[in-house]
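Q: Predict the bound structure with flavin mononucleotide.
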Amino acid sequence: MNPNLKIKLGRISLKNPVLAASGTFGYGEDYSRFIDLNQLGGIITKTVTLEPKEGNRPPRLAETPSGLLNSIGLENPGLKVFLREKLPFLQQFNTALVVNIAGEKEEEYLRLAERLDRVKGIDALEINISCPNVKTGGLIFGTKPRLVFSLVKRIREVTDIPLITKLTPNVTDIAEIAQAAEEAGTEALSLINTLVGMAIDVETRKPKLGNVTGGLSGPAIRPIAIRMVRQTFQKVNLPLIGVGGIMTAEDALEFILAGASAVAIGTANFIDPKTMIKVRDGIREYLRQNNIGEFKDLIGWLNLD
Amino acid sequence: MNPNLKIKLGRISLKNPVLAASGTFGYGEDYSRFIDLNQLGGIITKTVTLEPKEGNRPPRLAETPSGLLNSIGLENPGLKVFLREKLPFLQQFNTALVVNIAGEKEEEYLRLAERLDRVKGIDALEINISCPNVKTGGLIFGTKPRLVFSLVKRIREVTDIPLITKLTPNVTDIAEIAQAAEEAGTEALSLINTLVGMAIDVETRKPKLGNVTGGLSGPAIRPIAIRMVRQTFQKVNLPLIGVGGIMTAEDALEFILAGASAVAIGTANFIDPKTMIKVRDGIREYLRQNNIGEFKDLIGWLNLD
Amino acid sequence: MYQVIAEVLSNKNITLNYFKITLNAPEICQDAQPGQFVHVKVTAGYAPLLRRPFSIHDTRDENLEILYQVVGEGTAFLSQKEKGEKLDLLGPLGQGFESKENFRKVILVAGGIGVAPLYFLAKRLLNHDSKISDQAPLKSCHPKIIVLLGAGIRKQILCAQDFKNLGATVKIATEDGSWGYKGLVSDFLAETLLPYSKPDLVFACGPLPMLKKIAQLSRKYRLSSQVSLEQRMGCGIGACLGCVVTSPEGYLRVCKDGPVFRVNQILWERL
Amino acid sequence: MYQVIAEVLSNKNITLNYFKITLNAPEICQDAQPGQFVHVKVTAGYAPLLRRPFSIHDTRDENLEILYQVVGEGTAFLSQKEKGEKLDLLGPLGQGFESKENFRKVILVAGGIGVAPLYFLAKRLLNHDSKISDQAPLKSCHPKIIVLLGAGIRKQILCAQDFKNLGATVKIATEDGSWGYKGLVSDFLAETLLPYSKPDLVFACGPLPMLKKIAQLSRKYRLSSQVSLEQRMGCGIGACLGCVVTSPEGYLRVCKDGPVFRVNQILWERL
Ligand SMILES: Cc1cc2nc3c(=O)[nH]c(=O)nc-3n(C[C@H](O)[C@H](O)[C@H](O)COP(=O)(O)OP(=O)(O)OC[C@H]3O[C@@H](n4cnc5c(N)ncnc54)[C@H](O)[C@@H]3O)c2cc1C
Ligand SMILES: Cc1cc2nc3c(=O)[nH]c(=O)nc-3n(C[C@H](O)[C@H](O)[C@H](O)COP(=O)(O)OP(=O)(O)OC[C@H]3O[C@@H](n4cnc5c(N)ncnc54)[C@H](O)[C@@H]3O)c2cc1C
Ligand SMILES: Cc1cc2nc3c(=O)[nH]c(=O)nc-3n(C[C@H](O)[C@H](O)[C@H](O)COP(=O)(O)O)c2cc1C
Ligand SMILES: Cc1cc2nc3c(=O)[nH]c(=O)nc-3n(C[C@H](O)[C@H](O)[C@H](O)COP(=O)(O)O)c2cc1C
Ligand code: FES
Ligand code: FES
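A: Predicted complex:
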């Protein structure tokens, strides 16, 4: 039996459910030296902003038990350079292309969406709402249902590209935010982004990150991510992309059983560039062993008694 | 030099800043076979409720990368048995005694506080506000500043015992909750309780916990806890007890540099019953090596440039 | 109950993925009772995070033996320990097997690695060990001990000769029939022993389905049976309430109220 | 750039906490340039989570050498690898040392373990290695190579004889004066070499204060110097932007734009 790994997230078609998570895979070039990008379900680009962004001061990485703190700060060359220098490379591959966008004001998101709307070969936009909203005094967009609703709805109005909204876990009730995005017309949800964390070097008494705090990723956060996927799965009717600490096919399967229709791999790429291929193969093998012909039948299949 | 480890958290005097975290140390008896309880800065009891509580169905524990999920569900024999059978044992020791209380309704907390108010030898009450509030339809007390303010204020009115409010990390803005507790008159804050998480056995497709979700503790959550201590330290003027993934003196020092006046050790007790003693000794050694005579001078000493 | 840093004296791969580790742990040996366990820190790192519980398989003077099967990360780490290395142990922990009255016939039923605690028990029952608990001497005159060893295949049958050397009667069941009765050890018990003669006591350790079957047979034949249960453990000493099983009167802790329980202490349908 | 599973051929403790590991990695050796590095997965578990970067110390046919110091968890794991075990490597990565013009005198400055990449460089500069980069031959005629080795104490001076065997002039500085100049190697450079004769190129690797001093001296004496920098790395291949250092034109990635930089590429006051 050769199980069918194809899956649709709304209007987004994936040949398999394994994507590269935003910010951990750059714009694909570097990893194309190590793996065949045609094998991936999709690539979610590093966040693109309207103008170039310098990012935070180094050090930008610190290790914690089974976790990684990063404070890259959305460094990216800006939309213009992205379109000119990064996109053409990505367009060569037979894999879903998701462009992750962010801004500090609603208008920035809208301008990004408008401009990308005219570009060929983009399968979806992933809206990163973990940015501080300048207008509301630095409050994170993604923590207020009202802001999320308004943002997604307005982006929805300026483009027809399918939208994926990427949720932050640093909230009291992620399902509430998910519902706001659903009502506003998002096609799918990605969860989770990183949890805000901090580490201190006790010898120098300095924070280990130049930016003091950073985002925690890696296997440490996996149980939190799985819970949030489950919680959201029970409240919304949208396909979910599970993200957070996936290192193996087994980890990915946990997310899928919890309700994810696809998974994205972040930190694990750093540890083994072949992770995504191995996860895809492992999911296929699991389906085969369990005599399940269609990947999609596995989604949310949790035995509760 | 023999550094002075004594520290006051408001009216609560500790001979050293290392306490046993609630729920991981029972009522002290079991661990008294392995360590001298007189050496501890304090003992925070397992949560006591008004009536006996059966707790959740097993399995109640699952390991995750550098973390532990538990779904004990506040199993405890109730106030009456606690007072009769557990308290007398704890009262023998020369260490601060903190009784952790919880309820599903405000009234339960108030009754607990009233009854404990009449008992000798209790140095503080720790208010566990991570319980679902039955009145507001299962919403967790600790996630709404308004509920926290009202709860702490009313407890404040029925007892003169110093109050420590234990904060849940499953919120968008922990400092906001901390401020509500401060305004309501808490003497100190403990943070953090566990993060809600979940794990799935992909072979059986069942959740690894009988209760489906549980609380994540251990080193995996430490960077999140340290960040929350720092964030709260910047917003309130209360002494903080740092909790979350402390395994070594170095870990404890991270919390102290981030702003904690004391630390509580949970999961690490399971791994090594001597952890608390080792952490105390390690803090003393650090002070000695850095020529710091008073523990309290170290609190919040973060080098930022 | 002690926390000791015990030196590894030997750690041998017996067969397949089964190992026997011998540790120098005088205090624990001094107090150990059959059915009790030790809680072992198998690595200095955080993977796995928690200790791992293992039954006491035997004590010889100051030396403690653990018989274990490699099933995951923790036991894999344990299997890599070499002579001279140190292990951090808590023990002896929990309530062991109990036998207060005089009895003539006892059956010990082991499923797979469940044989681990039963050797120590047989040794005490047959008085091969001078150190009998002061409070509850297991046995004063020589009883008849029948040991049923069950496993999937012949190679998984452990300790058969050891039990014989103690003077016990050993009977074997393998699922593939490669040694002894073909089938489950619990079926063997049900079909060939219980219908003909009632033992005074049954002691069992093994996989849950086997123990359930024994609980069922115990009701049917009104046997007084004791079983050693497993549950994932946190503290191992009774403090965290993580390792509970359901009894008619509420939850019991495997680590402190057990791991050995009388079959009627347990609500089997909830396991 | 390859991901290879390389067999450990040997792993020796040279002195103190310094080790040399030899790996069979034909593809990497084939492409390796002095100053490039490999990104090594030192354990199968999650502690440490990330790979660890190490300069290429030498290549001999298919064999890759890494010279390393045990400073933490990752290097401790590496030091335990035994002959026959396998290691997962990414490499060769990054931009190495560059030298396009002809030159007569070159100074190599090593602080402590910073000597690691310089041996491979010296070998290429002195044409002891047939495989010179096609694009950028490091040197065509035999230059004078002066190697300054600095460390805290005599025992920490590594590879002195190896450099001599290549035909380089070796000078030593130790902080405690137990061998050669007493003091920092950068002071040695500043006091006894630069005032008397200007090298065509300075290549350096070592602790940050040493490199800062060399940057300063390079400005003063208008030297064209190249230094190998360190920064904690995520991907190691340019994708994550985790390993940046500050340049006048913004951030540069140590893993891809470096690890070797010309001193004037770096905003030293921001390091
Ligand atoms: C009181 C007691 C006594 C025991 N005595 C022995 C003994 O003498 N010899 C021996 O080989 N084993 C014994 N065990 C079981 C032993 O503790 C587990 O095999 C061990 O903890 C597994 O650790 P691991 O990291 O290798 O496997 P893990 O990676 O933790 O798990 C591997 C598999 O084993 C299962 N598992 C793990 N721990 C337990 C557990 N405690 N109960 C049930 N299933 C578990 C997991 O669900 C998983 O399927 C005993 C258990 C208890 C509770
Ligand atoms: C391009 C490059 C080439 C290198 N080449 C070599 C080499 O040839 N030989 C060698 O011994 N080492 C080399 N290093 C340094 C080596 O990577 C670190 O020593 C190693 O990663 C430490 O890992 P650990 O887990 O043992 O220590 P950790 O526990 O991670 O850290 C121990 C101490 O070392 C510091 N540290 C860890 N990693 C780095 C780093 N990347 N940069 C600066 N400080 C760090 C930590 O802050 C801490 O103080 C190189 C580093 C880079 C970036
Ligand atoms: C170094 C790094 C950079 C990241 N950059 C971005 C980003 O630019 N945009 C974004 O939406 N998420 C970003 N993320 C978050 C990841 O996409 C992912 O949500 C998170 O890391 C959890 O998954 P993981 O544990 O598999 O890494 C970044 C993560 C890391 C580790
Ligand atoms: C098994 C277990 C039981 C717990 N029970 C309680 C409890 O009853 N009341 C409470 O306030 N916190 C309880 N906690 C939370 C701890 O007190 C602590 O806040 C948390 O575990 C984080 O610290 P740690 O990482 O050091 O364990 C429990 C934690 C564990 C692991
Ligand atoms: S393991 Fe903690 S009570 Fe049993
Ligand atoms: S380590 Fe990822 S860009 Fe350099």
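A: Residues 208-221 of chain D form the longest helix (14 residues).
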